[in-house]
């Protein structure tokens, strides 16, 4: 089978206005970025705001492994398969970050014959949204230091400024820095509160309010100081106004996908923008979206944070698994492949349990690859049947939409049953109770252990912000704190190292032990596997 980049390079793409026309988008509502990418003007939603919403389908997965589980591949493949069986459908995805693109895992545009294109543009600079977010974030940082330079009129406590700097790059060397005025640090753009805000706002008015509410630090009397005090909120909006518009691209089969916003789910809320999802729900009868990493991180935050603002809950959940990933979760280095699969199923079972808690109909999508042994596929399919778990053998990676027809039909069927969403906690719960419920119900922790610093901070925040949702920053590689604990750890305490408030985004970030908000490059970065010839043709792993 051809590699992903070759498949993408050989794809015949439609002019973007033709892709938009399929969904009834007017040419005047598109702002083209070249031939195959365009931004959607706000007027699309305003024109359709009274139209009933389509059905929302959430794609999530088991705990990630080095092999990849294929959430984006499955999302794109399901969009194509739903279109193939005659449904009016759109995808809604996050934008890739240059951190993982150049670092550990490569691009985030799907794989095989289930990809969005143009691959190289989407995975690299795209329409400049992440650069705009980085610039707005860092201008706020610069304005803080500028205020210190000119006599500190806000009486800021330089030891208690909470706003960092950001960069869309893996660079461990700038995790801790010192400026002329204060100790500071960099976080990756996907973890920026400006990114979280952009993905949670409904319009410019909402953006203005949330940016103004950002907590930048405390004054020498211990009072909160917000971004509004610097009188630069309108300049931040001007920097972000184009980034606020969703980006329209297409699948290999010319079906429309909105790609917008890119917060990570291990250190942020892991969902694409409210604006993109909201717009897609007006344009299509089915909208397929994804939430980052496994269901314990992405799906939980989708349900407990995003749906509260979106005002719409999924009609179905697709839970992606692969044989390779399940065997990885079960393998101890001594057992057979089949025995490893049997043991690794425990990871899938825990994610199914979490999905069932939400009370949303679900189907397992078994993402099939070329060399998957038939005996192991049959074993997993029979296991699902015996335990009454709906499952579909999905071959979208190998065959595109043709390989997803069974999954599409199963998704259509389960969306006919409307259920009432059960979230993991109520907003009325205090912050400690929220953390306990997520830790014990979602991760399976015995209890929660707080560092002295985290305990003190959460107690303080609980006085004024107890009604905020929580966003747990945690390794995506395990249910526990330990990324090496594969499968299903049976007994562990979740360790909380620090707590921060994202006041503009409207949630409390709970950082577990070992979490890093500025990743480093691996020993052999993915960037070493990308190539370009003298004519500008890209190959390798992008």
Number of domain modules = 3
Radius of gyration: 23 Å
Question: What is the architecture of the largest domain at the second tier of CATH?
Answer: 3-Layer(aba) Sandwich
Which CATH C-level class of the largest domain is it?
Alpha Beta
> Given the structure, what is the number of helices?
19
Biggest beta-sheet profile:
12 strands, mixed
Note the overall shape.
Answer: globular
Short recap of the structure:
With 542 residues, the protein is an alpha/beta fold.
Structure, explained:
By secondary structure, the protein is an alpha/beta fold. It has three domains: 4-123 and 245-414, 3-Layer(aba) Sandwich (Rossmann fold); 129-240, Domain 2, N(10)-formyltetrahydrofolate synthetase; 431-512, Formyltetrahydrofolate synthetase, domain 3 (Roll). Helices cover 37% and strands 20% of the residues. It contains 19 helices and 25 strands. Strands 1, 2, 3, 4, 5, 6, 14, 15, 16, 17, 18 and 19 form a twelve-stranded mixed β-sheet that branches. It has a four-stranded mixed β-sheet with strand order 20-22-23-21. It has a three-stranded antiparallel β-sheet with strand order 7-12-13, with no helix packed on it. α9 (204-212) packs across α10. The longest helix has 21 residues, at 129-149. The protein is globular and about 70 Å long. The mean pLDDT is 95.
